[in-house]
Design goal:
By secondary structure, the chain is an alpha/beta fold. Helix content is 24%, strand content 27%.
């Protein structure tokens, strides 16, 4: 056995490296997709009219700092809004009247949920729902409105009898 190991030491080291790398990759994938919630995380729900760009594992931030992750998304059959479950760091005590907005880091940046703290003295607790939300902006429809020049007051046709400029 020792002579076999000596003859194939390079192959054994490559095999060990592959096993270590595969273990690291599995751990990374688990935490990046929201599988690795913090112990004791506070789970809250937010209803969004549009959740474009948000996936399981997306970050939840307050003032630009990560305080949680998105753990699930489902369509609410009654309101036809997206019910997003968030796992928040228990060390961050956000007010119960906080609001949530889907935003991005820039034109090509990652999309995340930004929490804006409210003024309530009672903090969010397990199972609470964030009522004040703002969904994602649809960039393509905004570009289409700009190109077609639709949606502005100047677009409306002048009333009959009105003089054209």
């Amino acid at each position: 056995m020792k002579s076999l190991l000596r003859e194939n030491i390079g192959e054994a080291l490559v095999g060990l490296f592959v096993v270590v790398f595969a273990t690291w990759f599995i751990w990374f994938a688990w935490t990046a997709t929201g599988g690795g919630d913090k112990a004791g995380a506070i789970h809250v729900t937010a209803l969004f009219p549009n959740s474009t760009g948000i996936n399981v594992g997306s970050e939840v931030r307050v003032a630009g700092l990560k305080v949680g992750t998105v753990t699930s998304q489902v369509l609410d059959p009654q309101s036809f809004q997206v019910k997003v479950k968030l796992a928040l760091d228990p060390a961050v005590k956000l007010p119960a009247d906080s609001s949530a907005a889907i935003t991005s880091e820039g034109f090509l940046g990652a999309t995340f949920i930004s929490l804006i703290p409210g003024g309530d003295t009672v903090p969010l607790k397990e199972g609470d729902t964030i009522a004040d939300t703002q969904g994602a902006m649809d960039l393509m429809s905004m570009v289409g409105q700009f190109i077609n020049k639709s949606g502005s007051p100047a677009d409306s046709a002048p009333a009959e009898g009105a003089a054209k400029p």
